[in-house]
Amino acid sequence: MTEPAIDAMVAEISRWGSIESPTRDAAGVNRMMDLVATSAADAPIAVERLPGKEGLGDSLVLRAGPQRDDGAILVMSHLDTVHPVGTAARDLPVRVEGNRLYGPGVYDMKGGACLAFEAFKAAARAGGLKRPVVYLMTPDEEIGSPTTRRPIEDFARRAAFALVTEPARDGGKVVTGRKGVGRFEAHVEGRPAHSGSRHEDGRSAIREAAHQILAVEGLTDYAKGVTTTVGLISGGTAANVIPQHCRFEIDLRVVTAADGEDYAARILGLKARDPDVRFTIQGGMNRPPYERSEATGALFEHARREAAGFGVDLEEVRRTGGGSDGNFTAALGVPTLDGLGIDGDGAHTLHEYGLISSIAPRMRLMRRLLDTL
Q1: Residue 234's CATH number
Q2: Domain carrying residue 133
Q3: Dihedral over Cα of 41, 43, 49, 52: its sign
């Protein structure tokens, strides 16, 4: 890839990064979908737009290659980010500093989505695809893919391989395994009372929640790769009132499906310590574990050989803690290669950046996978 082409890619990824698209902003997400749909018009790609659900943005299904329903390569990208509107103007402007391209969502995952999309268009134009390619772009991955899990799984059941353009890890490694993710919401209802004159009449929801939070956090087992985290909590009405309500949210990460069932049952089975308070909890596993299968290992070895052909020593991360839509495809037995996006750092932070030097090799790798699988 020549330097002018790299300049063009940096400009295009910058354009994608400048369109702010936090998950809950359907209009912003749909501006990204508009951009992709328009950009696909100059290539032999069939474009299908799926209307958004539950107030979220639309999805795009892009198809190229042989016209059949099975044995496809399923490519997956999400166009939503975690960054609120205004981040690009205030805290994380889109800009180039040396080898770094900064911007909201540039690393996770607009850089990877953009470079993979360009490789996909080039492969479609060349006309040599041996398999159908279905490229699914979704609006809600950052909140667990609540509206797109079903179409992802429907496409996966007809796919031979899945390629996910989440960002690279640890200097350019691809991902061949991820932990499963569970999410739970807990609510404690106590009894309010004046904290000075009627303290003994009250039943503190926050006190009960504190006991429950310690119980949840105590389930963490690093040896098994299980972590439990209470990341959000709210409660109380005033400093001089025994708190009637407290709510908190739990994040569970597991390595195996069996541990997912076990620990989800433990969390859902928690009971109130104080019989005078009401404790309820709901939730469950929302992403199954992505376990590295032999077929995924073989897919990685194929990618490693293809990368070696243009001078890249491709390495893998066999397990990472963050979930992705690759969890859904891998759990269905589809050989899944993840982390095929741009290299960089700072996902979900105000110093998020992609490495410009990684764009060309990642595009080459995606093109080789589309052409050779």
Answers
A1: 3.30.70.360
A2: 3-178+290-372
A3: negative
